[in-house]
C-alpha cells in the first residue's frame, strides 16, 4: 500500500459511484491520519477530567446531572464515531447498530414510572419515619 | 465459504442518499452491509446485543436506587482514597478511567498501523493496550478488595441501601470480565500479528481461514466497546 492511499481521507471517495469503485478498492480498511486519534484521545482526557471535576467540586442538582450526561454523551459519541469508525461506515450499518439502543430509552421511561410507583408504595406502607 | 469481494470500502457511499439509500441497501435479496465484511458486521451485532445486556444492568440499578426508601451510599465518599495524607474523592475511579481511555487510544493507533501492514508497531501497540487493560483489572481487584474489607456485601453494606453492593458487584464485575476477555483476545491477536500471520496468509487454527489485518480492527471494536461501557458506568454508577 502506498503512502498516497494511506493519506487518502475516505471522504474523497464519497461521491464515487459503486461501479467505478474498484479503482480505489485496494485502499482496504479504515485509513485516517494518526493525528486524528491523538486529538480525540486528548479530548477524551479533557472530558473525563471535566466529569471528574463535577464530582470533585460537589456540584449538585440539575446542573450536576446535566453536566454528567453532557460529558458522557460527548465521550460516547467520540469513541463510537472516531475510534470505532462509525462516522465512515455506510448509513445502512450505522442505523442498524445505532437505532436499536433507542428502544432502551423506552425501557428507561417504563422503569422510571415503575420505580416511582414502588417507592410510593414503600413510603405509604413500609417506611419508618427517618 | 467464498469471501465476498468488497467494492468501494471507502466511506458511506450509498447508491442513494439518506433513507432511500438505506431502503435500497436492505431491500430485495442482497447483502445488506455492502462494504463491511461478515466478521466486522458480526462483531457490531454482538456489541449491539452486549449493549442491551449492560443497559439491563444499569436499568435494574436505576430501578433499585429510585425505589428504595433507604438513602443510597455516596459513591464520592465510598470510593475516596487517602493519598499522601490527603482525602481525595473518587480518585481511583478517575485513574481507572484515564487508564482505559489511554488503552483505547493505543488500540485505535494499532488498527491504523495494522492497515499500513506495520506489524511490529501494531503488535507493540496491541500489547500496550493489553497492559493498560490488565492495569485496569488490577485496580478493580484492589477496589473490590477494599470494599469487601470495609464490609460491602451483595446483601448489605455499612452506609445505606443494601442494593448498593449487589449493583456494584454485578455491574463492575461483568465489565471487569469483559476487560479480562479483551486482554486475552488482544494478546492472542497480537501474537498472530507479530508472527506475520496476516502477511503470509497463514490459516487460523480454529476456522482454518486466512486472516487479514481487519481482525485488528474487529478486536479494536470490542476493546473500544469496553471503554464505551465504562463511560456509562462511570457516569451513572460513580458520578450520579
Strand and helix order of chain A: HHHHH
End-to-end distance of chain A: 70 Å
* Sequence of strands across the biggest β-sheet of chain B: 1-2
Radius of gyration of chain B: 21 Å
Number of domains of chain B: 2
**Helicity level of chain A, as a percent range?**
55-70%
InterPro entries (chain A): Cyt_c_oxidase_su4_prok (IPR005171)
Protein name (chain A): Cytochrome C oxidase subunit IV
Keywords (chain A): Cell membrane, Membrane, Transmembrane, Transmembrane helix
Membrane topology (chain A): Multi-pass membrane protein
3D architecture notes:
- The complex is a heterodimer of chains A (130) and B (240).
- Chain A has helices at residues 3-7, 34-56, 61-83, 91-98, 102-125.
- Chain A has 130 residues and is mostly helical.
- Chain A folds into 2 domains: 34-85; 87-129.
- The model of chain A is unreliable at 1-27 (pLDDT under 50).
- Chain B has 2 domains: 1-36, no CATH class; 38-239, Up-down Bundle (Four Helix Bundle (Hemerythrin (Met), subunit A)), CATH 1.20.120.80.
- Chain B is 68% helix and 2% strand.
- Chain B is built from 8 helices and 2 strands; from the N terminus they run αααββααααα.
- In chain B, strands 1-2 form a two-stranded antiparallel sheet.
- The model of chain B has no long low-confidence stretch (mean pLDDT 89).
- Chains A and B meet through helix 2, helix 3, helix 4 and helix 5 of A and helix 1, helix 2, helix 4 and helix 8 of B.
Secondary-structure map with pairings?
The complex is a heterodimer of chains A (130) and B (240).
Chain A: H1 3-7, H2 34-56, H3 61-83, H4 91-98, H5 102-125
Chain B: H1 18-26, H2 38-67, H3 75-78, E1 81-83, E2 86-88, H4 91-115, H5 119-149, H6 163-195, H7 197-200, H8 214-239
Antiparallel strand pairs in B: 1-2
Helix pairs in contact in B: 2-6, 2-8, 4-5, 4-8, 5-6, 6-8
GO molecular function (chain B): cytochrome-c oxidase activity
Transmembrane segments (chain B): 41-62, 88-111, 123-142, 162-190, 211-239
InterPro entries (chain B): Cyt_c/ubiquinol_Oxase_su3, Cyt_c_oxidase-like_su3, Cyt_c_oxidase_su3-like_sf, Cyt_c_oxidase_su3_a-hlx
Amino acid at each position: 500500500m502506498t503512502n498516497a492511499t494511506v493519506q487518502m481521507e475516505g471522504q474523497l471517495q464519497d461521491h464515487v459511484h459503486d461501479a467505478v469503485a474498484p479503482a480505489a478498492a485496494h485502499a482496504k480498511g479504515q485509513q485516517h491520519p494518526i493525528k486524528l486519534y491523538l486529538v480525540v484521545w486528548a479530548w477524551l482526557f479533557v472530558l473525563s477530567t471535566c466529569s471528574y471535576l463535577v464530582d470533585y467540586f460537589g456540584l449538585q442538582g440539575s446542573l450536576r446531572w446535566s453536566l454528567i450526561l453532557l460529558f458522557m454523551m460527548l465521550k460516547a459519541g467520540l469513541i463510537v464515531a472516531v475510534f470505532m469508525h462509525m462516522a465512515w461506515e455506510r448509513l445502512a450499518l450505522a442505523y442498524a447498530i445505532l437505532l436499536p439502543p433507542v428502544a432502551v430509552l423506552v425501557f428507561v421511561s417504563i422503569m422510571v414510572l415503575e420505580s416511582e410507583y414502588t417507592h410510593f408504595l414503600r413510603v405509604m406502607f413500609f417506611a419508618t419515619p427517618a | 465459504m467464498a469471501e465476498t469481494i468488497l467494492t468501494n470500502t471507502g466511506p458511506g457511499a450509498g447508491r442513494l442518499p439518506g433513507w432511500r439509500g438505506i431502503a435500497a441497501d436492505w431491500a430485495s435479496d442482497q447483502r445488506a452491509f455492502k462494504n463491511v465484511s461478515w466478521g466486522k458486521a458480526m462483531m457490531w451485532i454482538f456489541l449491539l446485543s452486549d449493549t442491551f445486556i449492560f443497559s439491563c444492568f444499569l436499568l435494574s440499578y436505576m430501578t433499585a436506587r429510585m425505589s428504595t426508601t433507604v438513602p443510597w451510599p455516596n459513591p464520592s465518599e465510598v470510593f475516596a482514597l487517602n493519598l499522601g495524607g490527603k482525602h481525595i474523592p473518587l480518585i481511583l475511579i478517575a485513574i481507572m478511567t484515564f487508564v482505559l481511555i489511554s488503552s483505547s487510544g493505543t488500540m485505535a493507533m494499532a488498527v491504523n498501523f495494522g492497515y499500513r501492514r506495520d506489524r511490529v508497531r501494531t503488535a507493540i501497540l496491541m500489547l500496550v493496550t493489553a497492559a493498560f487493560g490488565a492495569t485496569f483489572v488490577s485496580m478493580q481487584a484492589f477496589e473490590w478488595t477494599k470494599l469487601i474489607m470495609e464490609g460491602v456485601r451483595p446483601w448489605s453494606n455499612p452506609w445505606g441501601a443494601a442494593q448498593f453492593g449487589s449493583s456494584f458487584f454485578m455491574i463492575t464485575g461483568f465489565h471487569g470480565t469483559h476487560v479480562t476477555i479483551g486482554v486475552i483476545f488482544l494478546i492472542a491477536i497480537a501474537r498472530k500479528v507479530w508472527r506475520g500471520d496476516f502477511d503470509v496468509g497463514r490459516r487460523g487454527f480454529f476456522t482454518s481461514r486466512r486472516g487479514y489485518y481487519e481482525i485488528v480492527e474487529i478486536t479494536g471494536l470490542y476493546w473500544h466497546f469496553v471503554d464505551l461501557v465504562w463511560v456509562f458506568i462511570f457516569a451513572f454508577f460513580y458520578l450520579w
